[in-house]
Design brief:
Blueprint: H1 2-16, H2 19-29, H3 36-59, H4 75-84, H5 93-109, H6 113-120, H7 125-132, H8 138-165, H9 168-180, H10 193-217, H11 225-235
């Protein structure tokens, strides 16, 4: 009977503590020496949380389009829209294109989780301890450095599929063709797919980094026993 009384008592004590006191209590309960496998698994879990958070944030309506992550047109494409503003049917081409490509990015990001989860699995046990005790964004930097190019290659077809879903590429093709008919302009055919894929990936990595920083600095963000035990080791340094 006593053990059933102790459980709610501990919950009451923990929830009434300030963060410094809670940290001491958690340190006492996480003093067991961690294995490298546990450290690696904890870091993978943290990155997985970052991916989930990033995908949820960016894939919502206006997750790109009306936030600081809004994808703008590259400089070369800007030349096209500036010339087209005086042509009937293309006077608002920039906003139409911007909305289409940002909606496409929001749609594509929904399908990003499995691609990132597979990439996270590449983290090795040998890398884990250095990442844990490194900079506050070491896990995100590791994922970026190790997997950016493969992720780009996997993610681009997803972006293209979404661009086609919103007719962004067809609309852009019509705009470029109209531009190229203007006398004396240098003919252009800027590809948007690579540019949008890169921008979407940069945004995802930024959201993952924010989640990693939160887990490293905020006890409340360590929502599992493994996260609490692994990052308690970092706190002691």
């Amino acid at each position: 009977m006593k053990k059933y009384f102790l459980i709610p008592l501990m919950v009451l004590i923990l929830t009434s503590c300030d963060e410094a006191t809670m940290k001491k209590i958690l340190d006492a309960t996480t003093s067991t020496e961690l294995t490298q496998t546990e450290i690696a698994n904890g870091l993978k879990e943290a990155l997985g949380k970052g991916v989930e958070s990033g995908v949820q944030y960016l894939s919502k309506t206006d997750g790109f389009y009306k936030t600081s992550y809004k994808i703008l047109l590259p400089d070369e494409a800007q030349k096209v829209v500036e010339k087209l503003r005086l042509i009937p049917g293309f006077n608002n081409v920039e906003e139409v294109i911007l909305e289409k490509i940002n909606r496409s990015a929001e749609d594509a990001v929904q399908k990003a989780s499995p691609i990132f989860v597979n990439a996270i699995k590449t983290m090795t046990i040998n890398d884990a301890l250095g990442i844990l005790m490194g900079e506050k964004n070491s896990a995100t930097l590791y994922l970026d450095q190790k997997t950016h190019n493969p992720l780009f290659n996997e993610f681009q077809p997803v972006i293209v599929e979404s661009l086609n879903k919103f007719n962004a590429l067809d609309y852009w093709s019509d705009a470029v063709n109209a531009y190229n008919k203007i006398p004396f302009v240098t003919k252009l055919n800027p590809k948007l797919e690579d540019y949008i894929t890169e921008k979407a990936l940069v945004s995802l990595f930024d959201r993952i980094e924010k989640e990693e920083l939160s887990i490293r600095s905020n006890l409340a963000s360590r929502t599992t026993d493994l996260l609490r035990r692994v990052f308690a080791k970092q706190d002691k340094v």
